[in-house]
Fold this protein.
Amino acid sequence: MHETATAAAADPHEGEPYRRIRAAHTATTVTVYQAYRPELGLPAARDGRFPAAWKRERMTWIKPSFLWMMYRCGWATKADQETVLAVEITREGFDHALAHACLSHHVPSRHGDFAAWQTALRRSPARVQWDPERDLHLDPLPYRSLQLGLSGSASRAYADAWTVSIRDVTPLAREIHALVRAGQDEAARALLPRETPYPAGPLPHLGA
């Protein structure tokens, strides 16, 4: 009984809201992650902006969670996701996207009927998914992490107006992954980007 109580008290996830944006951020910027094939990712990191070949009319998904990005790209091993970018964007742009986003799935209590949600989704330049956050071993945690999809005007603004800097963090991903594989979780955890609750305020239209 004593061991159970101690384990519960030591639970680092206790009290974590089911949906919350956690990110590396400053007073003016927030860092999100994406993974691309080297032909796109390397020029973007070199020049600090997305190249002309980056399709601005296509929906693009950005993730404030480094470990969720690692889950998605398999620690930069999946095809066409070998280059992981840390994209620092303005908080003004990020907040604008959140304010005008729509959930990517229909929630009757929030959207009303299915047709109303479809209309809202078509009109929105951004959409949100809440996916299970991941631990160092990329196993799911009991709370959710934000994925933000940008299309149309939001996608163009992300590429050409909101982006402040772009860094290639593939070497960091590989270093952390190597430590995890070697069983050195504490050392790996020390290298993770510091992600803290992002002060977006209540987002009832996004279920948070």
About this structure: The longest strand covers residues 140-150. The chain has nine helices and nine strands. The longest helix spans residues 170-181.
